[in-house]
Design goal:
The protein is mainly β. It has no helices and ten strands. A ten-stranded antiparallel beta barrel has the order 1-2-3-4-5-6-7-8-9-10. Strand 5 and strand 6 form a beta hairpin. It is globular, with a radius of gyration of 15 Å.
Length: about 130
């Protein structure tokens, strides 16, 4: 569905359309940030590796390939590129129906983390787009 994404200060960071595609075998994400950044991702479950995979690209040429799965109630995907830099994105459902997305990065192979993005996804109802 369609989602408003709210930052920790309560401001709209952007809008996201998330939809099942290819007969329900994959998920398409279409990000439209209020700062002008746009991105798309494709997500699918890889039965062979038993992991979720995400390929994400933005309009500025940024690319991420993430892999992971459920950890407790959260979906946690980590970058797959070798080296000390690691991206980790966690999606956690909240009891009120919203979802928190926390994107963190590390320059020391995951010993310490920096927040890149923290957003709360709120489902858009008719006439509720911020």
């Amino acid at each position: 569905g369609d989602w408003n994404v709210i930052d920790p200060a309560g401001k709209v960071a952007g809008h996201n359309r998330i939809e099942a595609i290819l007969g329900g075998c994959a998920i398409s994400e279409n990000w439209d940030g209020t700062a002008g950044n746009r991105a798309k991702s494709y997500n699918a479950y890889d039965a062979q590796s038993k992991t979720w995979q995400q390929f994400w690209v933005d309009a500025r040429g940024g690319v991420l390939h993430l892999s992971g799965g459920l950890e407790g109630r959260s979906m946690v995907l980590r970058s797959t590129r070798p080296g000390a830099h690691v991206d980790r994105i966690t999606w956690t459902p909240n009891d009120d129906g919203t979802v928190r997305q926390l994107w963190q990065s590390s320059e020391d192979s995951g010993k310490t983390w920096k927040i890149e993005f923290d957003g709360r996804y709120e489902r858009i109802r008719h006439g509720n787009r911020a």
